[in-house]
């Protein structure tokens, strides 16, 4: 290898090495700021494993796992009823209510006027 090629290789090696070090410290500084907890960027809040919360303006429930990641549940699909004995309409969800009360629902009336909410 010529001296010029070796010099370029060393130059690029150190640049790449330096960038990897910067990324490593940036990524792990987020984790090290809150050891043993999950960090939610949107609310800027740390949660302990097993702790649950509802994100702002969302109808879902998130839980901090033992591996310091989030696991979440959202609303099930709104059921559909194809029955001539019922008149149904969808009630919109309300994100200001706690999960699962915030989920959309299906409200039906039977031929006798009895109201059923799914």
Description of the structure:
The mean pLDDT is 83. The relative contact order is 0.11. A hairpin with a 5-residue loop joins strand 4 and strand 5 (70-74). With 118 residues, the protein is an alpha+beta fold. The longest helix has 30 residues, at 3-32. It folds into three domains: 1-33; 37-74; 86-117, no CATH class. It is elongated, with a radius of gyration of 26 Å. The chain contains one helix and eight strands; from the N terminus they run αββββββββ. The strands form three sheets. The chain has a three-stranded antiparallel beta sheet, with no helix packed on it. It has a three-stranded antiparallel beta sheet with strand order 6-7-8, with no helix packed on it.
Describe this protein with a few key phrases.
28% strand; three-stranded antiparallel beta sheet; 3 domains; 8 strands; single chain; 118 residues; elongated; alpha+beta
Could you write a compact summary of the structure shown?
Helix content is about 25%, strand content about 30%.
Question: Which SSEs are present, and which pair or pack?
Answer:
Blueprint (H helix, E strand, L loop, with lengths): L2 H30 L5 E3 L4 E3 L4 E2 L6 E5 L5 E5 L11 E6 L13 E6 L4 E3 L1
Helix proportion range: 25-40%
Tell me the number of structural domains: 3
Secondary structure tally, helices? 1
Rg, please?
A: 26 Å
Structural class: alpha+beta
Shape, principal axes of CA atoms: elongated
N-to-C order of helices and strands: HEEEEEEEE
